Amino acid sequence: MDTYEPHIYELSSPGKHGTNLPRMDVPESELPAGLLRQDGMNDFPELTEPEVIRHYTRISQRNVSVDTTFYPLGSCTMKWSGKLHEEVARYAGFAAAHPLQDAADSQGALRLMYELQGYLGEISGFAAVSLQPAAGAQGEFTGILAFRAYHLDRGDHDRLEVLVPTAAHGTNPATAAMAGLKVVEVKGHACGGVDMDDLRAKVSPRTAGMMLTNPNTLGLFENQILEICEIVHAAGGLMYGDGANFNAILGIAKPGELGFDFMHYNLHKTFTTPHGGGGPGSGAVGCTAELAPFLPGPRVRLADGGGYELFTPEKSIGRMKAFHGNFGMLVRAWTYIRTLGAEGLREVSEIAVLNANYVRVRLMDLYPQAVERICMHETVLRGQIAGAPKDIRTLDIAKRLIDYGFHPPTVYFPLIVPEALMIEPTETEGKRTLDVFIDAMRQIAREAVETPELLHEAPTTAPVRRLDEVRAARQPILRYDREAIARVRAE
After folding, report:
1. Residues of the chain with pLDDT under 70
2. pLDDT for 263-303, tens place per residue?
3. What is the pLDDT of residue 1?
């Protein structure tokens, strides 16, 4: 480490106070002895208020976020989270709403949910939408459970296989396995698209459905999508659309009209609700009319007497989350859609695709393209620089990018691309920001040839130098441990 920030415990000194508790305004009472803590009472740090505030403020200033820098994370769509959306989500009527309030006292919130269901259905071409799932992966799980319930409801008990392309997101096969179904891998070609001969060979009366991302994980549109859907449907299977890359086709193509039966939306990616720490996410799902009875509830509908009410579909697979989903994220997504409108949403995708191709063309003479073809919202390059030593790898390029003030893009994904660099600029970034990023990438390519040791040592300007990532994953330090920290510093 170049610098060491003392832990809050190391700043502690006996006798310091950071708070002044008010005089008690209720009678004092003794807690039962069984509830009293017996040890560890002397382990709390003792600091003044300024010490605490300064410590955590300094640490927060080391965070990299979309508020401070360009986030080129491919396959994650780290776009700008508009401050207007944050303001609306903090309106008292939304932020202070309680999920146990009666529907009569929650008409504003229910109206927002009802309208958002409609907007998402219109954007994607689906007949019904549920806002329940809390993340994209949970949305996938919802879809496969709905597929299974649909087949069982029809008396079709033998459909126990899910087709998954080799270029799929890792959550796809995991989802199918969690649902108790068998994963059948379908080969892909160099563009990451589906091998049609292999698909025809593997689709069967056992096929419950196929999971497909379009555009795929190489950022390329699946040109044979109509034929793929026809093949699966002809065998009695259903098509699941992974909505991770929906940012590329907003207002341009509707998955429901392409032949998909079910899809999740990553509201925290496509519709700018925040990412963060495993949540808050939102993986709302849309589907055809045939699958609507199996959606998780509650959903929102118009009540017979006027207003809005909650209901659970008659053949629902059940709840996926407590109450009504991550409601604050729903408010943000609703605000985003209302702010942009239909034309604005289409422009989002047009600019995202333009930006990705601008980066691709400006870098392809130094960083080989995974596929020599116009991309969609993200471009996949390879960290194999001509003239550089063979031990210069994508990881070295990513670490060196930190020294230039950028969060690295996604690396080593998709797995089918050697030394992959997946860059997704989104529509958020202007040409000036992209040019600065491109200049940094070009300079790193020159360094890889002329001074490769710079890349091996990177990052050199970050608060923390390069870590042993394997050891960090296998032997994590999850709480303050003075001796463990001392050992790491010594090493």
Report:
1. 1-4, 40-42, 276-279
2. 999 998 999 888 754 557 899 999 999 999 999 999 999 99
3. 43
Sketch the domain layout of the chain as residue ranges: 83-339
β 410-411/420-423 pair status: antiparallel
Domain 83-339 has CATH 3.40.640.10: yes
Model pLDDT for residues 163-196, shown as the tens digit of each residue = 999 988 889 999 999 999 999 999 998 888 999 9
* Residue (of 94, 107, 173, 113) closest to 140 by Cα position: 173
Q: Count the neighbouring beta carbons within 10 Å of the beta carbon of residue 341.
A: 11
pLDDT tens-digit series, residues 10-41 = 888 888 888 888 899 999 898 898 888 877 66
